[in-house]
Amino acid sequence: MVKRTNILLLTLIFSLSMLLAACGSGGSNSGQGTDAGEAKSAGEQANSGQDAAGKKLSGNITVWIHPYVAEEKKDELKTVFDGAIGAFNEKHPDVKVKLEEIPWKNREQKILTALAAGNGPDVFYQLPDQIPQFANKDVLEPLTPYLEDNNMDDFSPGSLEAGTYQGTLYGLPILQEAQMMFYNPDIIKDIGEDPANVPKTWDEYNVWAEKAVAKGYYARDFNGGAACCNATLYPILWQFGGDVIDDSQNAVINNAEGVAAFQFIKDMYNKGWIPKDSISNQDQFPEYLSGKMLSVWGAGVTLSVLKTENRDYVTGPPLKGKAEASFGTVGMFVVPKNSKNKEAAAEFVKVLTNTETQMAFNKLANYIPTRKSASSIYDNDEDMKKFLEVAAYARPGVMSPVARTIMPKIQAEIAAMLEGGKTPQQAADAAAKAIQDEQSKG
Amino acid sequence: MITLSKANGQAEPLILQHKPPLGRRFRLEFKKNAIVYVFLIPILAHFLVFQIFPLAFSFVLTFMDWPIIGSPKYVGLANWSYFFQDEIAWKAIWNTVLFSVYYILPTMGMGLGLALLVNFGVKASGFFKSLYFLPVVTSFVIISGIWAWLFKGTEYGMINYILSWIGIDTQLFFSDSKQALPVLAALSVFKVSGSTMVYYYAGLKSIPSHLYEAAKIDGASKWRTFWRVTFPLLLPIHFYVAIITTIGSFQIFDSAYLITGGGPNYATTTLVYYLYEEGFTGLRLGYASVLAYILFFIIFAISLVQRKYLGKDVHY
Amino acid sequence: MTVSMKKNVFVYLMLMILGIIFFFPFAMMILGSLQKVERATADPLFWIPTNPTLYNFSYIMNQSSFVQWIKNSLVITIVPVLAQIFFGAVLGYIFAKKKFPGREFVFWTMMAVVMVPGQLLIIPKYVMFSQFGWINTYASIIVPELWAIMGVFLVRQFMMTIPKDLEEAAYMDGAGDFTIFFRIMLPLAKPAIATIGTFAFISCWNDLFTPLIFMTSEDMFPITVGLASILTKEGNFGVEMAGSAISFVPTFLIFIFFQRYFTEGIAMTGLKS
C-alpha cells in the first residue's frame, strides 16, 4: 500500500513539473502570437491621432507605479489612482487597467528586464535622465501623435523638455520636484544668527557653516554613498557655474568651475562641515534629525518627514554661487514601443497627467504639479510656494544616454578625492575621462 | 547491460545458458532498473535545459553585444579584449583576491579555535556551539543591516563608541577604501566561522584517542601535542575548509551590494558585484558574461585543486 | 584550585566572551526592533530601549506587502525543499546503487557543472525565462531548483555505505526497484534526507541574488529582497530590525529543530571523498 501511494506521489510531482515546463513553452508561443498583434496595432496607430477619443478601445493595460508616498498614505494614493482609472473608464469602459506597484530600488533594472522579456508594463514611470537612454535604444513610443486634444500649453516648458529627446516627446509629466535647503532653527539661534534671514548665496552660507562647525555641529549633509549625483555633486557643480556635459555632448566636468566645485566639496570634508563618513553614508538625515547638523539639502519628501515628525524647520533657497541652480526631477509616464495596447496606454497617460489627477496626486505626494492649471493646490502653502519658485529654474539632471552609467564612475572619483588619493583636479579629470569612455562605448 | 548479465549470473544461472527472449529480458531489466528510467531521464532533461544550455548560451553571449533592450549583434572578441584593458575588472579581481586573504585564514583560525573550545566538552558547550553556528543560518540581508549600523564611520557608530573606551580614534570603516573591504570580510568571517567550526569539530572527534594517550605517555605538553598531533592530523580538514571558503569568497556579492554598493572608489567592487553592475545596470550582458566566465575559470581552477587533494577518502 | 578546575574556568570564560560577541548583533536586532523610532539616531545609547514596544512589529505586519513577502518566501522555499528531498533521495540511490553505462560520467558531469557559479547562468537564464514568460513568476525561482546535485551527492555518499547484500537479498525475494528504494533505502537514508531538507530550506529562504533579478514587482518579492528594499530606503531602523527579526524566525525554528542535521551534513560532505 505504502508503495502505491508513493508512486502516486511521484507521478503527481512529475506531472506537476511537466506542467510547469509546458506552461513555459506555452508562454513562448503566446509571445509569438503577440508579435503579430503588435504589428497590427502599429498599423492602426497611423490614424490614431485623429479618432483615438472617438474610437472604442479595449483590452488590458498594465501600469507600473512606485511608492510615491510614505507607507501610511498608501491607501490615499490608491484612491487617487482609482479615481484616474474611473475617469478613464468613463471614456473607455472596455479597457481594463491594472496597477502594479514597483519599489524604487532597482526600478530601472526591473523595467529594462521586463521590457526585454516582453512582459513589461504598458505604461511606466520615467525620470528625465533615462529618457535619452531609452529613446536611444528605441524602446519608447513617441507620444506626439496622441496629444492633439491634450492642451499641451498648460504644461510648464521645463517639464516637457525633460521628456524630450532629439525633438520628440516621449513622456507626459505628472510631477516636478525641486531641491532646496532646510535649516534647524535651534542651531541657527545657537550660532547667533537669525532664522528669518537664511543665506541666499554660498558666501553667506559659508559664514554660518564656519560658526556651526566651531560649535561642534556639522554644517550640512553630503550623502556620498547614495546614488550619485543628482542630489550631491550636480547641484553644487551647477551653482558654481559648471556642468557635466555641454549641449554638444562634450564632458566639461573638469573645466575651471567644475574643479572649483570639486575643491569646495573636498574643503567641506576636510573642515568637518560634512561628516567623515560622507564617502559611504547613504542617508545623513538621521544626523540632522538628531540635532547634530545645521542644514540639509532636501526635497518635498524632506519637508513631509519634518512635518510628520513635528520638527521646527526653516527652508532656504538653493545657494547661489556663479549661478542659481537646483536639481529637480520630473516624473513622467511613458509608453514602451512593445506595449500590446499602445493607444489605450497613451490615452491613460493623458488621464494620469490631466489637471484633476495632478491636483489630487501632487497634493497627496507633496510634489509640484507640471500643469499650471493644477498649481492652485498650493495657494495656501508657503513652503510649497517656495518649491514652485525653485522649480522654475531647477534642472532635470544630465540629458544624455550615458547619464546613468557615468554616475557610479563620478561617485568613485569623488570618493577617491575625499579620501585624499586624488586632488580635485585629478578627480575631475578622471571623471571627464570616464564620461568620454562611456560615451564611446555607445 | 553489465548489470543484467551479472545479476542473472548470480540469480538465474540456468536461464542464462539459453538466452531469455527479448521481451523477458526487457521486463527483467525494467524491474531491476525501473527507477533509473523513470527518474534519471527527466532529471537529465532538466539538467540539459537549466544547466548545460545556459552554460553554452552564456558562452555565445560573450561574443555578442547584448543590451537588455534593443537587438543583439555579433561583436567577435571585442568583449574579451575589452576585459584585458578594463582596469575596473582587474581591480574587481584584485579586490576579490584581497577579500579572500582577509577572509580565509581568519575564518579557518576562528573555526578551529571555536571547535577546540567546544571540544573541551564542558557543560553547556553544546549551547555555545549552537550560538556560534547561528549566523550561518541567518541571511546576509539581516546581518548586513546590523553590520552597517555597527560599523558606522563616525563617533556615533557603535563600534567606534566601543573603540573610544580603549582610546582608539574614530575609524571611517566603510568610508575608507582601505578599511571597507576588511570590514566586509569580517562580516563574512562572523557569518561563516560557525560552519568551519563544525568541520573542525568533526575532524577533532575523529582523531583516535590512543594517539593522544601515546603523546601523554611520552610526556608531551598540551601545546606540543596540539602542534605535533592534532594540527597535522587535521590536514585534510584544513584543505577542504580552505577550498570551500575560497570558492565562497570568490562569489561574494550580497554584503557589497547591500552595504557599500562597491565603493568607496571601487574598493569593495568584487568580481560578482561588478558583473552584476555591468550586466544589469550598464546593460552589457555580453561583457557581463565574459566576467562570469572569468569567475568560472577561477573557481574551476580551485575545484581542480580540490579534486586533486581531496578526491580520496580521509584516513587516519 | 586544581589544574583542571582552572582550565574549566578558562574555557568557560572564553566560551562566554565569544558567545557574547556572536550574540551581540542579534541582541542589536532585538533591541532595535523594540523601540519606536521613525528614524534611528546615530547615538549608541539609542540601543537601550527606554520604552519597549511592539509598535514596529504591528507596523510592518500591517503593510500589505510584508505579509506577501513572507508568503512568497514560503512558496519559493517549501516547493524546492520538498522536491530536492525527493529527487536527492532517488538520484542519490540511483548513483550509489544502480549500475548503468555512463553512470560515473553523468554524475561527475553534474558535479562539475555545479561548480559553475550561479552568477554565470543567471544571464542566459534571464533571456530564456523571458522567452518562457517566467519572469516575475514563482516558476523562475522554483523550477531550476527542483533538484540539487549536492543533495544527490549527500545521499549517494550515505547509500554507498549501505551493504550491497541488503538490496541483493531484497531483489532475490522478488522485490522491484521501487520497492527496494522505498522500503529499504529511503528509511535508511533518513538522516541524509533531513540534511538536504534543512540545507535547502536555509539556502532558499536566504537567497537574495536570484529573486533580485527574476522578481520584478514588489508583490512577488521574497522576504530577502523586500527587506533589502527597506534597508536601503531611508533608515527607519526600528522597522528594519522588526522586519529582520520576523524573517529570522523560520530559519531560527528550523535551526533549533534540525540543528543536528546541519552539523552532521556539513561533516558528511566534508569528510568523505
UniProtKB/TrEMBL annotation, chain A:
User: Keywords on this record?
Assistant: Signal, Transport
Disordered: region residues: 30-54
> InterPro entries, per this entry?
SBP
Signal sequence segment: 1-21
Name the protein family. Belongs to the bacterial solute-binding protein 1 family.
PANTHER family, per the entry: MALTOSE-BINDING PERIPLASMIC PROTEIN, MALTOSE_MALTODEXTRIN-BINDING PERIPLASMIC PROTEIN
Protein's name in the database:
Sugar ABC transporter substrate-binding protein
Give the organism, scientific name. Answer: Paenibacillus profundus
